[in-house]
Design brief:
The complex is a heterodimer. By secondary structure, chain A is mostly helical. Chain A is built from 12 helices and no strands. In chain A, helix 1 runs antiparallel to helix 2, helix 8 (144-162) packs antiparallel against helix 11 and helix 9 packs antiparallel against helix 10. The N and C termini of chain A lie far apart (63 Å). Chain B folds into 3 domains: 7-142; 167-276; 279-487, no CATH class. Chain B is 70% helix and 2% strand. Chain B is built from 20 helices and 2 strands. In chain B, helix 3 (85-105) runs parallel beside helix 15 (343-373). Classes of the chains: A mainly alpha, B mainly alpha. At the A-B interface, helix 4, helix 8 and helix 11 of A face helix 1, helix 4, helix 5, helix 6 and helix 8 of B.
Chain lengths: 310, 502
């Protein structure tokens, strides 16, 4: 098979990366970053890692890009007369980066053959759990504790963003996400797209057990639909003191914890699943996590409260 | 070669509780929005202390490490938790410091009675519990990626604590802290990925058996240790620490300085002594020690020059962290059969523990002094002795540990490091330990001198401090002093669970 498309992909990736670093305007740089994310997800597809590709597209390019664009809108242009690092520091930084890059390149270019891997071992137990997607097995079974703690990180990140709320506004709603001038096409899109997007999100979650997809990808798609509706001003972001909102945020981690502790009684210990019920439990946990991820991502983009509670 | 199999021990499930209990408390505060966030924290804090003590008792009784295999999946596929003598010591230390901080913080972070929920109490208590989960995971985790997740938990709990009061300069300090911590995370993750690529496992015990002395391993460990150095604020990567730790509310500074910066150091210890192919690179050990010496000397001088009490204590933290990095060449050059039976290793660990107790006490004392006087300018501390005598006494006792004067844990720790340095003929290290002690004495006495001076005529007390808060701070300082009565030799307890290591 021709290597030409791959070379082109690598070339575009490098160009977009250089553009991201070199761009003098914040917005240009962020757009470069989003392009890098999308090209990276193509690269992952070429490497047959569809799960990583979906996550990169949804989180790396999509959600992060949106966050950065919102930040740009609030920050205004970069002031160039600010302090430039001095020449010795810049040379030192350059030399250090070059050394690290050279060492990494040496290691990557002369890999160990055959590369040691856990893939066969990971695949060996898949049938025990009745799942078809090795990535899901790794995330929800072998390394379930990491996945659980990563969701706790998300909750902590949300608390960190909310911590920036002025004291008097605590409990209120984040500022409106509406664009400066209302736009007809956006409103139209926000009315038409969500039903389709929600189906795709649910499909990714449901499908994740056996084929590429899963909680983070599905959750991000759901969050995107919610954000679209908020940006078109069809719905306002909810107040951060709302009990229902808080409960949705912790719903996923709580279900995961309950499933984990249930393992003490119905299987052999924390976060272990009984073989006969492994798949339903894992799908349930995934669905709960995806819901929480969607709510958390949406609220992360919406930002700290900007209006006093009603 | 098959990686070592973990067998779950009887009390192993407690390790899960140690990690998950703070999470449950944090989620409960977040979701329930009860009238008082601190009430849930006061249920979790003593509970967590009991769990840590129970695990410690288990380790002491059985004389072996407590192990748990999560989900029954053996590493390298799954993840194991393991509490040896060292990690259980640090878990108890963490629980004691957090409980003390919780008591003192009651005065500053109680929800006002007329509100269902307020910003700073809710954020403070959830993040403190988040930190606890992160620290216990760092101490128990046996898997490089699991440790990465623990570091992320640590970063995302610690950074918002820095800017809890929302002032402009604390926001800047928090952002700088975040950038340093994230660069550290990236380097660590890159190293972990390289190790997985080279060995096909992330499990520490498995890596220990497989580790070769080649370029990939050296680069991977180098990247990881460099990243962790940024998180542990070793000179010259310490720039973020003083403004961050000085800008946080005193109760948060106490946790950040006493515990949070120790977590990345603990992982460096694990990588150096448990993963790196032995004997480790002598030049790298010397380099770490030189950076430690630079930390001690440069930041002690900086501490002397500060006008603000909290900034002075923050610089002192960087200086005291420097001592920890002296143990690498000292433990290597010793003729003890294993590193953890050497005087240098034990001295380093004791320095970690006594600094944690002393620095927590010192930051909390500084917080109470600032509350009582309404400021923390060292020049105007006169009169502090007449309003908060117990806090000033606690500051002085904690100062003993920093200076390395008897009786104090710091004295024993520094004496052990000094003994190891002279035994192994590392004269520069010995000189730095002595110089650091003299500089620490200068900055501690500078504060005590002012605090003990008679109050000036226009002296006004801004707030009265309840006795229990002052006594808690004194209790921590006394713990640091009591550590000074341990025997001057390597302890068997710290070596539990490490004896079988190759």
């Amino acid at each position: 098979m021709s290597l030409l498309p791959d070379f082109a992909l690598v070339l575009f990736l490098l160009m977009a990366a250089v553009w991201t670093v070199a761009a003098r305007d914040r917005r240009d740089s962020v757009i470069g970053f989003i392009v890098v994310g999308l090209l990276l997800s193509l690269a992952w597809i070429r490497l047959n890692s569809v799960d990583v590709a979906l996550t990169e597209a949804a989180v790396g390019g999509g959600a992060t890009g949106l966050l950065l664009l919102r930040a740009c809108a609030r920050l205004g242009p970069i002031e160039t007369e600010g302090a430039h690092p001095q020449l010795p520091l810049r040379i030192l930084t350059g030399v250090l980066c070059a050394v690290v890059a050279a060492a990494l390149a040496t290691i990557v270019l002369f890999p160990i053959e055959p590369a040691p891997t856990l893939a066969p071992a990971a695949a060996a137990h898949m049938s025990e759990l009745g799942l078809g997607n090795p990535v899901t097995v790794v995330l929800l079974a072998y390394r379930a504790i990491d996945t659980l703690l990563e969701k706790v990180v998300l909750v902590l990140a949300l608390i960190g963003v909310w911590a920036l709320t002025p004291d008097l506004l605590w409990g209120g709603a984040p500022g409106s996400l509406r664009a400066q001038q209302s736009s007809g096409p956006l409103t139209f899109l926000a009315q038409v797209l969500p039903p389709v997007g929600i189906v795709i999100g649910v499909y990714l979650i449901w499908n994740g057990a056996d084929r590429p997809g899963g909680t983070f990808q599905g959750g991000t798609v759901l969050a995107a639909m919610w954000l679209l509706v908020m940006m078109a001003d069809l719905r306002e972001p909810p107040e951060i003191r709302l009990h229902k909102l808080r409960q949705l945020v912790v719903f996923g981690p709580v279900v995961f914890l309950v499933a984990g502790f249930a393992g003490f009684w119905i299987a052999n210990g924390f976060l272990s699943y009984p073989p006969d019920f492994a798949k339903p439990i894992i799908v349930l946990v995934e669905a709960a996590l995806a819901l929480s991820i969607a709510v958390i991502l949406g609220m992360l983009v919406a930002g700290p409260a900007a209006r006093a509670p009603r | 070669m098959t990686p070592a199999a973990y067998t779950a021990t009887e009390g192993g499930a407690l390790l899960v509780v140690a990690i998950v209990l703070p999470v449950i408390g944090m989620l409960a505060i977040f979701a329930l929005g009860l009238r008082r966030a601190e009430r849930i924290a006061y249920l979790v804090l003593p509970g967590g202390l009991l769990v840590a003590l129970a695990i410690a008792a288990d380790v002491a009784r059985s004389g072996a490490a407590v192990t748990y295999v999560l989900g029954g999946w053996q590493p390298p596929l799954g993840i194991a938790l393991r509490a040896d003598g060292l990690s259980v010591t640090l878990m108890v230390l963490t629980a004691v410091v957090l409980c003390a901080v919780g008591l003192v913080a009651r005065g500053s972070f109680s929800t006002p009675t007329d509100k269902a929920e307020a910003r700073s109490p809710m954020v403070f208590w959830t993040l403190i519990l988040g930190l606890w989960c992160a620290l216990n995971t760092v101490f128990l985790g046996q898997d490089l990626f699991n440790l990465f997740v623990a570091l992320e938990l640590l970063t995302f709990s610690a950074v918002p604590l820095v800017c809890l009061d929302g002032r402009r300069e604390t926001l800047q300090a928090a952002l700088r802290y975040l950038l340093f911590a994230l660069i550290g995370s990236v380097l660590y993750l890159m190293g972990a990925a390289l190790l997985y690529g080279a060995y096909g496992t992330l499990d520490l015990a498995g890596l220990r058996l497989l580790a070769r002395n080649d370029l990939a391993t050296s680069v991977a460990l180098g990247l990881m240790i460099a990243g962790l150095m940024a998180k542990a604020a070793l000179f010259p990567l310490h720039l973020w620490l003083p403004p961050a730790h000085a800008g946080a509310p005193a109760a948060a500074s106490a946790v950040l300085s006493a515990l949070v910066v120790k977590a990345p150091f603990f992982i460096i210890l694990r990588l150096w002594f448990d993963v790196a192919p032995q004997p480790a690179n002598a030049m790298a050990a010397q380099m770490l020690a030189w950076l430690g010496i630079a930390s001690i000397l440069f930041c002690s001088v900086m501490a002397l020059r500060q006008a603000r009490l909290k900034l002075m204590i923050a610089y002192s933290t960087v200086a005291q962290l420097g001592y920890l990095f002296l143990m690498f060449p000292l433990a290597m050059a010793s003729d003890a059969p294993t590193a953890w039976e050497s005087v240098g290793w034990t001295g380093g660990v004791l320095q970690l523990v006594s600094h944690a107790l002393a620095k927590a006490s010192m930051f909390l004392a500084a917080g109470l002094i600032a509350e009582a006087l309404g400021h923390d300018r060292i020049e105007n501390l006169d009169g502090a002795m007449s309003v908060v005598p117990i806090s000033v006494a606690a500051f002085g006792l904690a100062g003993l540990s920093l200076m390395g004067l008897p009786p104090s844990g710091g004295f024993v720790a520094k004496l052990m490091l000094l003994t190891a340095a002279t035994e192994t003929a590392n004269w520069w290290i010995a000189a730095a330990i002595l110089m650091g002690g003299i500089l620490a004495a200068s900055y501690v006495f500078r504060v005590l001198n002012r605090a003990m001076a008679a109050p000036s005529s226009n002296f006004a007390c801004k707030a009265s401090i309840p006795l229990y808060r002052e006594l808690t701070v004194l209790g921590l300082a006394i713990c640091a002093v009591v550590l000074g009565f341990v025997p001057l030799q390597p302890f068997a307890f710290l070596g539990i669970g490490r004896v079988g290591l190759p």
